[in-house]
Queue: 4 jobs
Job 1
Amino acid sequence: MRVIGRLLVLLLGGMIAAAIAGTIAAREAKRRIVPIDDPEADEIRLAAIFAPVSFKSTATSFRGGSIDCRFGGGVVDLREASLDPAGAHLKVTAMFGGGQILIPESWRVTTRVLGIGGIGDARPGIERAEDAPHLTIEGTAIFGGFGVAYEMPEEATRGLEEAVAKAAAKASARVERTRAEMPEEVAAV
């Protein structure tokens, strides 16, 4: 019985250490990642780090990019994008977070996501044409993951929009507080 107790304490301690290390890594990533979130961009770089993300692509030759969800998540909607003829490649990272990737039902998807978590394709398991647009999703999931679907319930969309608006309002308030604390000559720049 003592051995089981010690193993449980060790497991709990390891999980707490992983969460602390993950938080530190996420804060550093938030400083380092410069988002590319133009809806018309053919390559994207999205980050949901301690915040939600909602992105809808209208790219005419989408080639892929990266999605980084650490202690945050959201929806990446690619249903109005057209894939590059050579296909597209998304590199995903989920650490204590994740997201939904919405794609047209006709696209072929190949996934290679490793870790404690993963990715699931919720679309019907039908045969897709061999020449259909092809999206490859690769990456890492640690206590998180991604879902691939072609639709999302209206209630979930509304909840995400509210969360994104709330996060934007908080960020705007932080900027205004920072400006108010700056000397006038610096704030005017």
Note: Residues 6 and 131 are 55 Å apart (CA to CA).
Job 2
Amino acid sequence: MRNVLRSVVYGVIVLVLLLLGLRILGPPDPTAHAPLQAAGSGDAVAAPRPPTAVGPDVLALRARTLLYPVEGIPPNTLRDSFAEGRAGHVHEAVDILAPRGTRVLAVDDGRVIKLFNSVRGGLTVYQFDSEQTYCYYYAHLDGYVPWLEEGALVRKGDVLGYVGTTGNAPKDTPHLHFSIFKLGPERRWWEGTPINPFGIWGSR
């Protein structure tokens, strides 16, 4: 009889301790660590990607209605690779894939400042806009049009060259490497502040 009473007492103590523990801790929060879900869907979805930052230079360039630099390729196919890493550097440009030999067009009025054959960019064109505020850079060209030379004035839509794979571009992936940078007061063709072209054509 004594053993039975002892077992009952122990059981009551354990039950009381369990109830006290639940009271202190409380029930688990049903929303803690829950994945984001689309309304009316049971599938987890990723948080939305923040939009590409649009600064005053992007807005100024949008106002110019820059021409898309590869003939026949729709701007809505452009992918934002501006911040992607490359071998030893950040891309700071966009790549526009197109068949080899597709015509590359001047995006704006201006002047050809430099024609350059570099290890990375291959055959390249550096074009200043008419106000010498921005430089447009076209790289991996398969060739130039015959009349192109340093100092030549160009109009928006003029053919500068042709899509290719010169420089360090993969030989089976012809594309135009295109970048824009804002010139400093020295107006040097090889330096400036990079501007993401995706903000002009791809994020509107």
Note: Residues 83 and 92 are 6 Å apart (CA to CA).
Job 3
Amino acid sequence: MPQARGPARIIDPGKALASSVAEMPARSRTEHAHDHAHEQPDVSEVRVRGRRLTRQRQAIWDVLTAQPDAHLSAEQVSDRVRSIMPSLNPSTVYRTLDVLVDDGLVRRTDLGRDRAFYEPAREHLHHHLVCERCDRVTHIHGDALGDVEGRIRAAAGFTLTDREITFFGVCRDCAAPG
């Protein structure tokens, strides 16, 4: 038998997130190897793509952009959104993340641990270096890899598509003696 609910509360997800997200760290620490800012898409792009910008979509977007260099699992996104919208069903978060990925606003990437992680899409691709000891994630641009695309094409006749590459290893801090 369903439980009776009280009257619906209208909340401003952006305001609620300002206080709650700051105290919830992402699982992975992130560094960026270049000293420039990345433009990220604006959530208004949801409307441009013919979709409604619901409170739930806005709240999910706000969680993802509160720490734009963080890589959050769907479970982490769901937990953070549900801290301000307790009645939100986790399946709504998963479906919305799929919509945002399909629309190019969010990137889904594999950073290990057998699950997907999400981050706002950037104006250009970057790759990930994941420390297997401390979970630090470092962003690195394609220019640091040289002409890996050309070398792969020459060696294997294989053309890379518009995807990022994730490398696993040990970061500078963890590799340092001491």
Note: Residues 1-34 have pLDDT under 50 and may be disordered.
Job 4
Amino acid sequence: MPMNGTGAGTRLRRTVGLLILTLLSVRAAAQDLVLQLDPARTTIRFTLGASLHTVHGTFQIKTGALRANPASGKLSGEIVVDATSGETGNGMRDRKMHKEVLESGRYPEITFRPDRIDGAVAAQGKSSVKVHGIFSVHGSDHEITLPAEVDIGADHWIANAHFTIPYVKWGIKNPSTFFLHVANEVEMDVAVAGTLTRETSTSSPVQ
């Protein structure tokens, strides 16, 4: 029985379409996402529970650059926060925080060095992932995994993360007094944004 020309043409188009999609997927998997953070569009907020009131404050980011490979989950780079920029809107409280708690004169930077992403990262659009890495504060390194919502665009990206820092467990002084009891953990809300470029996959960390 002769082959139906229309049916053969449809199958051929489908096969070609699948081949193109496969090639595009392979090409995307071989690309790294180079992510630069924009300090002007990045916010770092913290919330510390206390017996009389809840303390809210902010930090400023200094620099940040990451390289991610969505196919392998590898992530490298560093985010640097200015520890001396921490403020809560109360001068006396802030001076105590910097002198007795953070000791920011001695430890002026807080850094996060990620090493992997757990979860699928869409080439474009929104993804829910977990980011594993080393959080360095007050002169000590701590392994941590942060849940994050990431939105990848053609040339930009944004990410939001909420996580808890057990600062007392990490060896940082609790500022409680006889009249004021302060929680042993601080809640962090981080929103970052910046530019994105796509490069051929490499094992070299971002500079």
Note: The longest helix spans residues 5-29.
